[in-house]
Every structure is written in structure tokens, then in C-alpha cells.
Amino acid sequence: MAQGRPPVTAGDSKTTRQRRNQPLVAVHTGAGKGKSTAAFGLALRGWNQGWSIGVFQFVKSAKWRIGEQSALEALNDVHRGTGQGGPIEWHKMGSGWSWSRKAGTEEDHARDAVEGWAEIKRRLADQTHTLYILDEFTYVMKWGWVDVDDVVETLRSRPGYQHVVITGRDADPRLLEIADLATEMTKLAHPFDRGQKGQKGIEW
Amino acid sequence: MAQGRPPVTAGDSKTTRQRRNQPLVAVHTGAGKGKSTAAFGLALRGWNQGWSIGVFQFVKSAKWRIGEQSALEALNDVHRGTGQGGPIEWHKMGSGWSWSRKAGTEEDHARDAVEGWAEIKRRLADQTHTLYILDEFTYVMKWGWVDVDDVVETLRSRPGYQHVVITGRDADPRLLEIADLATEMTKLAHPFDRGQKGQKGIEW
């Protein structure tokens, strides 16, 4: 794609710089692949800008997607060692959040999800990160574990310059309504349809 | 998504391991965002598996998408320094391919594209990489700079265990036909529609 030239002229009185520096809510939804992968790809850009990045994985399995986690943690190490790029924190719900240090249990995902969202709200209020990746967070909303209106209001009113990317199928219309950027990934062909199983490097 | 459980049982006599280790052709197409970003996200998984990765950017601007390039080159440095992960090469067409070392010109993109594809064919024959990312390669096919049937036949007959990911809008039906995995990214909402310009960290 050619470098961004907007087809519409904004009707407000903002300068180009102000418009450029608008913090975004992005949603990657749909049944196709690439939702999370594209979010983690965005982390590469943010890292290169020196942004503080927080990844919050709202999934059950602690071993899932270890590939991206290892790679982004390696980039965090590069930042700590050389100053290049920015810091990346990776938190996952799998066996209790890393900040809570409690013994993990696969029993109460709803409670863990609520705790994760409360932590993200605190960080948004504190402007802890420049980029938040809330991976598979749509399910947490869909299942009613967190309140969609609370999410929408929190995102709408978040202070400063903080981008938030949310991934997962079946994004709530209220979330899509406030998204600055929403992409639907649709499956055209998938090896699972041919009896192909998931494989390392591709699926995780 | 739950860890891969195929909805269809393969009718062939391959073992699970053989099926798992099937090299894939993946296509990210459609007018929405995330096509290239998801491809670079896949590179994180491949890097973590220790794969050799070759990125070939078929775009004009040499400064475009510097974010992912810097981050993946940092991961390549991590590999060279510590042995973690795998090697990543990043080649772009912008001002002549890096291997040709000729003075760059923005004049003859068609010739550069042909040269890039010839190099990729050599590498596929030599089994140089495990993962190839041919970024925005669909345009090169669409514009007739490389022959679609040649691409399809080369991919079909490539030896060994080599994954190829191709990104860009308007993927040719013949390419989609042989794709093991094809995803269409569709725009649901985009800040450009509101007069928002591209911004660092998000667009590049």
C-alpha cells in the first residue's frame, strides 16, 4: 500500500501532527487466521519506536503461542541490554497472571479475566504503556466475564497517547463502533480443511 | 482458537508427523490491513523454531516498514550473538536488491521484480530458507512482471520443507488454488476514512 494518504479531509481544526498522534483502538476479528499474528507484528513496529508494550493473553493454555512470546521477550532483552527499541511485557492468564504470583489454577478463568481487565484499567489510568495488545479479549466480553460497556467507556476515556489492539472472533458491535481501525480476517482456504494438523512455527 | 484439531480426517496414509511437517503456501490478501503484519508476525514463530527466514519486500520505497525490518534484524543479531532463534535475512527491492549491490534506481521496478523472483527460485531450489515471506508479491504478478504459472509451478514443485507466505491485494485465483492457507483481510473501519493520517508505530 502507498504510504498513508487519507481519502477524506478531516473537518476538524487539528494540525497534521495532532492528527498523526491520535491514539487508536484497533480490533482484529473474524474467523480467519492472522488476528493475533498481526497484533504481534504491530508490536515489532512499536518496539522499533521505543514504545512500552504490554501484551495480555486472555487464553487458557500457558504453552500456547510460545513463539511470539519468546521472540518479543528477546526483543525486550535487546532493549534492556542496548537501549534499542522499547520494553515489552508479556502477561498471560494461563495459570494466574504473572503480577499476582498466586498459584495458578485452570479452574476459574472468569475470575482471572476480571483480574486481568482490572489490571489493564489501572495501567491505562497510569499510562503505563503506549501499546496494549489484549489478545483474544473478545471472548472474555462475549462470555460476559467483563462488561462490554465498561470496556468501551474505559477505552473512550483513556488518557494520553495509548494504542489498544483487541483480537478475537465475534467482536461486540459496541466495541467495533468505537474502533478507529477494525479488520475482519476471513478464511479462504485452510489446511485443517484438508486434514492437516497444526504444526510448530505456523500455528504456535 | 483452540489448539489445532482438524475437522476433517485426511484420506491419505500419512502419519501425524508427516502431516504436521507439510510445508505450506500461505496467502494474505484482501483490501484490509494486517496482511504484511501477520506475515512478519509469523516470522516471530519461525525465528523461535530456529528457522532460516528470508523476507523479500517487493515494494518501491526503501524507507517503508522500517519498524519490522529493524525488529527482525535485531532478532537476527540475537541469533548470531547467542544462538537463540534462527537467522533472518531482509531484502527489499526499493533501490536494487541487497545481493546485487548495483546502484539503485526507482526507474525499472519490473526488472528488479524479475531479478527478485529469479533469486527466490534459486533459493527454493537450494532450500536456503525454511520460511520465505514474499511481501506484496501479488502486485508483481498482477502487473505481469512475473508469470503467474511460473510462480505456481515453482511453488508446487519446490523441494524439501519450505514454507512460503505471499501478501498483497488481488491474489490471482491460480495462486489461491494452490494455497494451503489463504486469508482475506477486510476493512471494517479505518482511521483514514475519518481523515486520520498514517502514523509511526502503526503504519510503519
Give a structural overview.
2 copies of one chain form a homodimer. By secondary structure, the first copy, chain A, is an alpha/beta fold. The first copy, chain A, has a domain of 116 residues: P-loop containing nucleotide triphosphate hydrolases (Rossmann fold, 3-Layer(aba) Sandwich), CATH 3.40.50. Chain A is 37% helix and 17% strand. Chain A has 7 helices and 6 strands; from the N terminus they run αβαβαβαβααβαβ. In chain A, strands 3-2-4-5-1-6 form a 6-stranded parallel beta sheet. Chain A is globular. The two termini of chain A are 28 Å apart. Strand 6 of chain A pairs antiparallel with strand 6 of chain B.
Strand proportion of chain A? 15-25%
Number of strands of chain A: 6
CATH topology of the domain at 52-167 in chain A: Rossmann fold
Using the CA coordinates, give the radius of gyration of chain A.
18 Å
CATH class of the domain at 52-167 in chain A: Alpha Beta
Helical/strand content category of chain A = alpha/beta
CATH architecture of the domain at 52-167 in chain A: 3-Layer(aba) Sandwich
Mean pLDDT of chain A: 84
Helix coverage percent of chain A: 25-40%
Report how far the terminal alpha carbons of chain A are from each other. Answer: 28 Å
Largest interface (CB < 8 Å) = A-B, 82 and 83 residues
Main beta sheet of chain A: strand number and arrangement? 6 strands, parallel
So what's the oligomer here? homodimer
Physical arrangement of strands within the biggest beta sheet of chain A = 3-2-4-5-1-6
CATH superfamily of the domain at 52-167 in chain A: P-loop containing nucleotide triphosphate hydrolases
Number of helices of chain A: 7
What order do the SSEs of chain A take from the amino end to the carboxyl end, as H and E?
Answer: HEHEHEHEHHEHE
